[in-house]
Amino acid sequence: MGSNMELFLSFIPALILVLVASYICGNLARYIGQPKVVGEMIAGILIGPSFLGIFAPQFMSTLFTIDIKSILYILSNIGLGMYMFLVGAEVDEKKLTGNLIKKCTILSTSGIIVPLLLGIMVGVIYYSKLSLPDVNIYLFALFIGSALALTAFPMLARILQERNLTTSNFGTLALIAASIDDALAWCLVALITALAQAQGVLAGITAITFGTLFACFMLLVGKKWLTRLGERVEKEGSLSMNHFSLVLLLLLVAIWFTDYVGVYSVFGGFIVGLSMPRNKVFLQELKSKFQPFVITLLLPIFFAYSGLNTNFTTIFNDMSLLIPAIVVLVASIAGKYGGCALAMKSIGYSWREASAIGILMNARGLMVLILVNIGITYKIITPQVFAILVLMTLVTTIVVMPIFNILYPENPKENQNVLDLKPFSKQS
Length: 428
Description:
By secondary structure, this protein is mostly helical. The protein is about 80% helix and about 0% strand. It is found in: Membrane.
């Protein structure tokens, strides 16, 4: 009993520091024109070994013990699953016309294949320098390729939410393309994780199969049951505690199941969100009950956990790592931005429109942080590679908003030609 109370008394100060740092950095980020989530990412770095560990190493190690980190890990994974649930619930399925799906498929395919191939090349080139000795070259190269191929779906969603573009044609195209992108990438990650655990290719295929079956069940069977729930909530005018408990239970089961079969918990949260009814009252009630808790508490905990595993001093203490870090950064931007922008240009969009989508898809944020945490947990990558990939994530995420604002200004008169991202006709 005493040890539990000691753990509680140790955890609260750590949580307070996480939330204070997140609040300050998040608001500073918004002040300089960046999404709040960028500040929250930086807050996680500041309380970790890259900053606090340099100036107050004893304080950091005392505050963030192994037991505290374990609690942060659990809460951060629950938070990610819940956040992806909210993102999935906001996707406007009425906009999923055949033409839009075709565009999304072209965009997502180019957005994953080009950076994946570039990442694999980088992994092969730097395998002998950066990889652990017991990790084979194929696994290491696939991991680097996956890191470069991912789009930060939650990050992209936050940017669109802050600009009120989630339900626009622009936002729907970006969200669906990014979701396809990440679904394919997470299938690859499931295979990589299975290989890292020495379970073989069959285990990876099994994970993908169970994840697909789960998605089909929720979108075909579960959606019908939830539709009736949505109609009842719409009639009553509010989401009762009993109904909220059912939704929460379903969400937690989905998070656990997808993580258990090896697909990762964020996928389960997103699929359950897609399965939710689109009744106006129901969606408003979901957001009012989930969003404040998830965004103000659980997401900052994830950034803190990632920051505690990031040590940029490993790069700057060994100058030979700077060249690989620059190569990874250039390959990540060229692959994701270049692949997406060229694909959009090829199907009739202007360079401005294609660039707006390309730079938005280049945001990585949360998703790569999740991936590198998997990599360090399963000993696929070294702390040095972890730091390089986090640095790449920060830079590619920070540059998104300034460039996107230039290409897609908030002034309606300036962006009237790109609001719906409709391709120009051949005559124009």
